[in-house]
Design goal:
Blueprint (H helix, E strand, L loop, with lengths): L1 H16 L31 H37 L2 H13 L4 H12 L3 H27 L3 H8 L4 H37 L11 H8 L8 H18 L12
Helix pairs in contact: 1-2, 1-9, 2-3, 2-5, 2-7, 2-9, 3-5, 4-5, 4-7, 5-7, 6-7, 7-8, 7-9, 8-9
Length: 255
């Protein structure tokens, strides 16, 4: 119920904002305060802030969500494979995760942006390069414990192939905890995307993005505080919405 209410709080203004053009400039409407015509005011180029926040929700949340999904899929596949086989593969995954713990995604993305230039492609690749490792370690540990369960051993004794066991037995056990980890990591990814946009390493102007909007608001805080308040409020609402999402429950088959 709480998640549904928060979803409406975010979806309604986003839907209204998407009706406007986030790139349309009007030099006769520069830095206008919130009004019925512009519910969140306008920026230094006369662009509607609500339209830009709404478009920024699609780009910022979309980038974080895409990086998260790809990272989870890669980590799930690699971790399940190493956990099933055991041996050196598991040791390598654990070592990589330990190394990645000292390399926050923000730093990796910052270095990648400085080397390859700003843009969504560079940002996504940098986030995925680090983001898949925690999922791999989780899947590795879970698979290593599950492969010795009696119901898995029974499937193997009956001649079931590895892929069938993974699809019918292991995957339903792995998806809930992987989904829970994804929910936990999503807010950090959203903040990382916004931080990189604030530093100018996101999509180039005039693309609407929450971090870039926060950076642009700094020069106008005294006369147009709504330029800071609007994207900041969007980030806060998004965080609360994610916190309200169900984590899912694992069902143990016993054994």
């Amino acid at each position: 119920m709480r998640a549904a209410i928060l979803l409406c709080l975010l979806a309604v203004p986003v839907a209204v904002g998407l009706l406007g053009d986030p790139l349309a400039t009007d030099m006769r409407a520069v830095l206008l305060p919130p009004s019925p015509e512009h519910p969140l005011g306008t920026d230094a180029l006369g662009r509607d802030v609500l339209a830009r926040v709404a478009a920024g929700a699609v780009t910022s949340l979309g980038a974080a969500g895409l990086a998260l999904v790809v990272s989870a899929l890669i980590g799930l596949a690699v971790g399940a494979a190493t956990g099933w086989s055991g041996g050196r593969g598991s040791a390598v995954v654990r070592a990589l995760v330990d190394v990645a713990a000292a390399l926050p995604p923000l730093i990796v993305a910052l270095v990648a942006g400085l080397v390859a230039g700003p843009g969504w492609t560079t940002l996504l690749l940098a986030l995925i390069a680090v983001g898949w490792l925690p999922f791999a370690r989780q899947a590795d540990a879970l698979t290593a414990s599950l492969r010795t369960r009696q119901w898995v051993l029974a499937h193997r004794a009956m001649g079931a192939g590895t892929l069938r066991i993974w699809w019918r037995s292991l995957l339903p056990e792995l998806l809930p905890p992987v989904g829970a980890l994804a929910v936990v990591r999503l807010p950090a990814l959203i903040n990382t995307v916004a931080a990189l946009g604030f530093l100018g390493l996101g999509p180039p102007p005039p693309a609407p993005e929450w971090g870039a909007m926060l950076a642009a608001s700094v020069d106008h805080l005294g006369v147009a505080p709504w330029l800071l308040a609007a994207p900041l409020a969007a980030l806060v609402v998004a965080q609360f919405l994610i916190a309200a999402l169900p984590f899912g429950r694992r069902t143990d088959r016993g054994g």
